[in-house]
Amino acid sequence: MVTISLCMIVKNEEKVLDRCLESFNGIADEIIIADTGSEDCTKEIAQRYTDKIYDFQWIDDFAAARNFSFSKASMEYILWTDADDMLLEEDRQKFLQLKEVLNPTIDCVTMNINLAFDQYGKVTHTIRSNRLVKRSCSFRWVGPVHEYLEMGGNILNSDIGVTHKRVHHDVDRNIKIYEQRLKNNEEFGPRDLYYYANELLDHRRHQEAAEYYIKFLDAGKGWFEDNVAACWKLADIHIILNDWDNAMKYSLQSFKYDTPRAESCCRMGFLFLNINMYKQATFWYKLATLLEKPNENMGLTNSACWTWLPHLQLCVCYDRLGLYQLAYDHNELARLYIPDDQRVLYNKQYLENTLNIKNNGDQ
């Protein structure tokens, strides 16, 4: 069995830290806590689980803090997590099993980060992340904000899910770091351009966000998953700005970087549906239903686009085209995924009544 160091950086995490550490308890052979200036009970909570608590003077550099926490690890593998992450019991058991059988030739294990859930508790948005790495590889964190772990080697893509349940967040922290760097005349690389654009979008500064997404794409040096996501976000910005031509342009541009994703097809369908071009919308939503979801996609995945959403939208399109049986059929396919959804139940009753009236009228 391999041994694991759990490494974290924390600040004022008293609302979530106990939940996080309890879920990883028994998986980690040691827990390393790098505190960047907590003023609440974070340290007291951490002391229930470990005596390896270190102060790290905050210097507006997340990579530096994470590298510091990694430097304190002594086990064979290092697992990193944030305080608002946790393992659900099913994933906790998977992790314990992985620890029993992990081949020591593996340098890195990726896991699914579950970002959002629907009313049924099903995961709606995920992203895959490098989470467990071999300490002897000396992988390093890079980037003062939206840092990433620079790594390679023999990678195992696991089916373990880490659930991200954010309770609080300093919404201005990251954008302030970026803007201070701009004031210092730092030159942004592709990753900085992309994540600064994300921060601008989160702050509803849509025109500025679009400018930086375009700078990122024009640089031509971004990771292909970020290129795809930048196109989606540019499309969404132009939808907000009621600029349908550019929304369509950037939705299509995502195909330049990878084969069509269901998320792209659903955006195209949405654009045509909103200008009452139902046949064109039907084409794109139907294409979304035919695509095979990639097993190891490292980018953001919207599960709705790969399951019920295109069927629900096809129901709308076929209804407006007067093809009520097709509308009913696709509503039933959507109902397989979201059986208690009020939209689906309304559609079912409406279409059953419509089909009954139509069939009776045809007799």
Automatic annotation (TrEMBL):
InterPro entries linked: Glyco_trans_2-like, Nucleotide-diphossugar_trans, TPR-like_helical_dom_sf
Pfam family, one: Glycos_transf_2
Keyword Iron-sulfur on entry: no
Listed transmembrane segments: none
Alphabetized Gene3D superfamilies for the sequence: Spore Coat Polysaccharide Biosynthesis Protein SpsA, Chain A, Tetratricopeptide repeat domain
GO terms assigned for molecular function: transferase activity
Statement: the UniProt record of this protein carries the keyword Nucleotide-binding: no
Domain of life: Bacteria
Segments forming domain Glycosyltransferase 2-like: 5-125
Keywords: Transferase
PANTHER family linked to this entry: GLYCOSYLTRANSFERASE, POLY-BETA-1,6-N-ACETYL-D-GLUCOSAMINE SYNTHASE
Name of protein: Glycosyl transferase
Source organism of this protein record: Geosporobacter ferrireducens
